[in-house]
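WARN  no MSA supplied for this record, continuing single-sequence
INFO  ligand: magnesium ion
INFO  echoing inputs
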Amino acid sequence: MIYIKTESEIEKIQKAGRIVANALQEIKKIIKPGLTLIEIDKFAEEYAYKNHAKPAFKGYHAFPASICLSVNNVVVHGIPDQYVLRSGDIIGLDYGIELDGYFGDSAITVPVGDISESAQKLIDVTRESLDLGIKSALVGCRIGDISYSIQHYVEGFSYSVVRNFVGHGIGRKLHEEPPVPNYGTKGKGIKLEQGMVLALEPMVNIGSPETVVLPDGWTAVTRDGSLSAHFEHTIAITKNGPKVLTYPDSYEP
Ligand code: MG
Ligand code: MG
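INFO  complex generated
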């Protein structure tokens, strides 16, 4: 069941989304070698409560933290621990909050100190693939058009798109129908309608697309150990085109 949102619901999701995006920008500013993942989690948790919101991930299927922190070969769902960030790392920050009964969800991958050219390229291509996916999210198009545009762009750089994790509908729940894969065929899948709200989230590996979940039940790593990046925006399908609901206050389109 896909829940179509009213304009006022989309506004509420945007309010939540803006808090998420502002938090990610603040976290990006404090990321530096020497910081532990636990410290970032504490910041993320407090940021939600300071903004009268609830961290959406904490306790979600028993996830133990307020933010997913995925370093280097971790694809998604990394659990913040005592790991100390080092120059050269890349870190995926995936954060969600609930405000007034509505959810926002967004992710960015950022460099720690000085990173290699190949790591920076992976980050750039992943972010660009999300932008292309968003541009394909037009009324009357299909989920497969989003999926295809992401996959086609990523594979043009000989990177691979992760299959085991996908984007999703979002609104009154963190994860709603429909799934939004980052791979697929143009013209296939569910038709996009005005009022759908989707979280698009390409996960891109330098090596093979395969992932393995560690014994903690959450941390998904690349099977071949290669670097992985992740970006995510919550967007609404509107008659005026896709509307990104997870831009920070500082962003001027
Ligand atoms: Mg997310
Ligand atoms: Mg998500």
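The longest helix spans residues 7-30.
INFO  checksum written, moving to next record
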